[in-house]
Structure to design on (728 residues):
């Protein structure tokens, strides 16, 4: 495990006291975001997102299979995340640890509960055959804030996915039926300071983390608090505001890239 | 007489022969030929052929001043991460305090940063460091940044000239570890400026005219800073 | 189940228009990841591979340490979305075998005696697969290792040859791999010509085998030039002269 020197933590807090962050950003400012779609040929959809130096690649694969018994007319969505050792000297190889599992489930809920994918439109034969959507999140470079990079690359990949109907002799290929995606924004708290889009160091000294997903109406679609620190009501409200503002900008950028 | 463009070589490049030169840093010998083992800058004089590495982990040398982070407090000492392939050991007898056996945590704990010197390296490349020197202590305050160990000589400058240059324009304390860790202590805005300058030196380390450009940058900053 | 696809047409052109001794298009970029000590992104035909090197660092767990030299851990992994039918995440037997032969090839070329008790970890991730992923992976690993400043005797490089429609050809593409008669990936140390990795499956006469090895080695030398250019591009642009 890479140890964060005590000095580093002290310095970050000292700067925060003056309202500053090590890389010069404001507390509610994101690093530069880059979005690229259709980067993997074999995948039905894919997107590579960079937030600062953090890089995540999400690939979408689709297959035909049986529906869940309690939703016989609905497509199936399954999300997995890999914190592969490629991305950080601290990631180990092996089955997903709880961080990877939490990441996958939070992204999954963001997609599922917001009904971004119109799963009812993905039924082929009720109770027999539906489309299965596999979302695989691959972390390539970890430099802070995996949640947002993973969510954004997932949304970008889904928005540009093509259902491979022709491969299964079910007609012509068509775009995956998608609605306006929610945008997730993550903040962390260290000492008494709350900042959005944590850098690697801020992530490593964080006591608590809050991810808020918002839609284009300004409503909240998902939230997740992580780590063993706490937030006050006031802090939560500030985080929601920062998430709404940044979410709007990020959604614009996503729209520009995907054309949707 | 020096070639204006520094020559970059890579692993497997044949640089000379042992009948006319000695094999220096970053090279190995095969069939009488001196061959580069890394990406680096060729440094060839009448005696030696060296390759100055452009990248790579810190390779400890006895006597090097380094900055380390304590990984673990053990009963007879501490394990210290000095950015080398394995951690170094700091014995309780090699610190400026009187430490009882088992009481190590009272003095240094996980996450503490120290200035140390490389004391011993045995044949199995196990390292020991020491803090028994006037200039060595446990670090408090300031910030520590990491640079490529191969750039450290450029950041220090000939006989410390680059560091002196920075200190001439910005009031600060700077300690450069050979292992690529640098401690800067000053007023907060000054810490940021010093780090900016160091990063610039790091990225332009192998260019020419760097010292002048750095001095210009430091002078310009002074004019922008209120008295 | 050979279909009636003509792998080589009457003009000697293959399915994708290549001649029998032509390589697919290769693009290599060094130093693409921030956290890794060294990294490389490589495209080879439809293959997309990214490699990250960490090390030398303390080998963990302790019982894997070798007191005389560094151990080389190459981990070859295919992303779930890299193939036509989604692959379940995690190493399967094929990945473990490829990881092993690549580790062994790299061990020969890295100056491991310089770092006792350490490990050098090479992570090869296939993001998009189209035949020849192990050659793409090893070639990218060579660049990533050089980028990490790991001392080596040479920059290892790999390339495959094979036999399709009775003819020995260079660098099999997707359908050629599925429908061809033999596949022979090879890795060499370009300076000495030593062979670091060699696998063959299919059916070759002794004469065909020798032809295939020669052809693959020739391919290796071409790819080696591309590796070196990628490295020079990255480091020369930092000169700012």
């Amino acid at each position: 495990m890479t140890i964060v020197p005590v000095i580093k933590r002290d310095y970050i807090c000292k700067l925060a006291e003056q309202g500053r962050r090590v890389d010069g950003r404001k507390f509610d400012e994101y690093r530069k975001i880059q979005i690229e779609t259709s980067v993997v040929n074999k995948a039905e959809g894919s997107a590579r997102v960079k937030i600062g130096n953090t890089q995540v690649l999400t690939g979408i694969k689709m297959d035909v299979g049986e529906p869940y018994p309690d939703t016989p007319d609905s497509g199936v969505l399954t999300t997995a995340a890999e914190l592969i050792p490629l991305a950080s000297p601290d990631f180990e190889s092996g089955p997903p640890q709880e961080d990877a599992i939490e990441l996958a489930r939070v992204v999954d809920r963001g997609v599922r509960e917001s009904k971004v994918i119109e799963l009812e439109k993905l039924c082929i034969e009720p109770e027999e055959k539906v489309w299965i959507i596999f979302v695989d999140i691959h972390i390539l470079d970890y430099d802070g804030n995996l949640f947002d990079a993973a969510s954004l690359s997932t949304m970008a990949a889904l928005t540009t996915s093509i259902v491979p109907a022709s491969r299964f002799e079910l007609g012509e290929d068509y775009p995956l039926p998608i609605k306006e995606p929610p945008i997730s924004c993550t903040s962390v708290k260290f000492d008494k300071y709350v900042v959005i889009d944590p850098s690697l160091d801020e992530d490593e000294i964080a006591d608590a983390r809050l991810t808020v997903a918002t839609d284009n109406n300004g409503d909240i679609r998902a939230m997740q608090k992580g780590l063993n620190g706490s937030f006050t009501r006031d802090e939560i409200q500030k985080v929601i505001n920062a998430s709404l503002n940044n979410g709007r900008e990020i959604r614009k950028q996503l729209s520009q890239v995907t054309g949707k | 007489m020096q070639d204006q463009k520094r020559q970059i070589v890579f692993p497997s490049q044949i640089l000379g022969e042992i009948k006319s030169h000695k094999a220096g840093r970053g090279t190995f010998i095969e069939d009488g030929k001196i061959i580069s083992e890394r990406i680096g800058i060729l440094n060839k004089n009448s005696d030696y052929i060296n390759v100055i590495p452009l990248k790579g982990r810190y390779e400890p040398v006895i006597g090097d001043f380094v900055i380390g982070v304590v990984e673990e407090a053990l009963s007879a000492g501490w394990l210290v991460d000095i950015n080398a392939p394995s951690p170094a050991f700091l014995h309780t007898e090699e610190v400026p305090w009187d430490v009882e056996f088992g009481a190590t945590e009272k003095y240094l704990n996980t996450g503490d940063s120290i200035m140390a010197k490389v004391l011993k390296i045995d044949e199995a490349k196990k390292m020991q460091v020491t803090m028994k020197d006037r200039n060595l202590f446990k670090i408090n305050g300031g910030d520590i940044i990491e640079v490529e160990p191969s750039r450290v000589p450029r950041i220090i400058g000939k006989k410390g000239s680059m560091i002196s240059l920075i200190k001439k324009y910005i009031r600060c304390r700077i300690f450069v570890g050979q292992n690529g860790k640098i401690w800067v202590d000053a007023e907060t805005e000054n810490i940021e400026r010093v780090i900016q300058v160091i990063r610039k030196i790091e990225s332009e380390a192998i260019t020419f005219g760097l010292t002048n450009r750095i001095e210009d940058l430091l002078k310009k900053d002074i004019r922008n800073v209120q008295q | 189940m050979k279909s009636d696809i003509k792998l080589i047409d009457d003009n000697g052109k293959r399915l994708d228009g290549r001649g029998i001794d032509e390589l697919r298009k290769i693009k290599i970029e060094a130093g693409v990841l921030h956290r890794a000590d060294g990294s490389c992104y490589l495209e080879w035909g439809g293959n997309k591979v990214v490699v990250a090197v960490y090390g030398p660092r303390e080998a963990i767990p302790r019982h894997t340490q070798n007191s005389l030299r560094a151990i080389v851990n190459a981990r070859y992994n295919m992303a779930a979305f890299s193939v036509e039918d989604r692959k379940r995440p995690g190493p399967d037997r094929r990945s473990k075998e490829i990881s092993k032969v690549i580790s062994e090839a790299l061990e020969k070329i890295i100056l491991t005696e310089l770092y006792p008790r350490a490990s050098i970890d090479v992570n090869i991730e296939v993001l998009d697969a189209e035949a020849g992923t192990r050659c793409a992976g090893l070639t990218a690993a060579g660049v990533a290792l050089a980028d990490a400043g790991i001392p080596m005797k040479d920059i290892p490089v790999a390339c495959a040859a094979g036999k399709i429609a009775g003819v020995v050809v260079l660098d099999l593409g997707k359908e050629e791999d599925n429908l061809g008669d033999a596949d022979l990936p090879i890795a060499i140390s370009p300076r000495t010509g030593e062979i670091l990795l060699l696998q063959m499956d299919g059916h070759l006469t002794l004469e065909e085998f020798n032809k295939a090895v020669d052809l693959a080695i020739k391919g290796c030398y071409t790819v080696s030039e591309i590796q070196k250019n990628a490295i020079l591009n990255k480091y020369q642009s930092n000169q700012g002269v």
In short: The longest strand of chain B covers residues 65-73. The mean pLDDT of chain B is 89. DSSP finds four helices and 15 strands in chain B. The radius of gyration of chain B is 20 Å.
